């Protein structure tokens, strides 16, 4: 079934810049060039909240994972944390010296990453509301920054035409993807954390593997792509473009599934709900739209279940190995019906054990890398001592 328009929210007085669903789908947040943040209720006849506080355009909004907070970034150079209730109280974070274009919570809700026209990416603690550190290797405005699902990496996209991958612990840039022909408007991690998708002013969407740092897929559109969002199953990607359309890409097949026309003028932002059954979009036409996903409805619930239990998937002939789960499921669904519970239990236990082993391996890898860093430091110190000794001897 095709996606269908479910709700239509009017209330902003200027272009909508950003949309995000709360965890329970009861609320939808939107930011706008009108300097306001709106919280819309998904229940009929419930009134919307308008939050006033920013002194200039609100560029980005996001609910915290629990849904008890909303973060926003603005052209007034500040980040605000709001309690999405009638009072609409907020606290202000100040550290950027330019427009804040992007806010994103880590999946544990403890950290916040922001991106700004001051060319930096900044990381904050949410509860102590403290600025922690800056990542500053971009040489132009940074439009977007996101944590990986496990919170260990950060990806950022900039008008310097690069997408950079950072290690949150060492605060170093691990890799720069430079294949974009234009500015990079938006970037996000695949739910599996193994790849990223980036949208650009060169009308493309590119998907890269972050383990091998190679390009996996490349979609060529005919208009600037402003925003994108992965479906929680990891099988689909929705984009918002300047030609006023939203497009649904099937990542398994590597093709365009649907083109949706709803907005008049550029579609500026788009986001799937946490369950994937809805997605919201905003546009320069001041409107916020909510769409029912409808496609593949029967399948993606199962996909989510399988992904959670840690089953491994054969990446047979697809460009995106991690994104093969849906296809794999369709093949096996019929044969599974008559299987006994013991077998399934055994498989689950095996999957859990494997997951545990993988976790332990990760810890080991991290430990080794820390040891390597220490070793390098020791070597450097030793070298320095020897050089100093040489100097002293020479001076004598």
From TrEMBL:
WD repeats lie at residues 9-50, 51-82, 93-134, 135-176, 177-218, 225-259, 260-292. The keyword Chloroplast does not apply. GO terms for cellular component: centriole; ciliary basal body. InterPro entries: WD40/YVTN_repeat-like_dom_sf, WD40_PAC1, WD40_repeat_CS, WD40_repeat_dom_sf, WD40_rpt, WDR55/POC1. GO terms for biological process: cilium assembly; microtubule-based process; multicellular organismal-level homeostasis. CDD domains: WD40. Gene3D superfamilies: YVTN repeat-like/Quinoprotein amine dehydrogenase. It comes from the Eukaryota. Pfam families: WD40 (PF00400). Keywords: Coiled coil, Repeat, WD repeat. Belongs to the WD repeat POC1 family. May play an important role in centriole assembly and/or stability and ciliogenesis. This is POC1 centriolar protein homolog A. It comes from Nipponia nippon (Crested ibis).
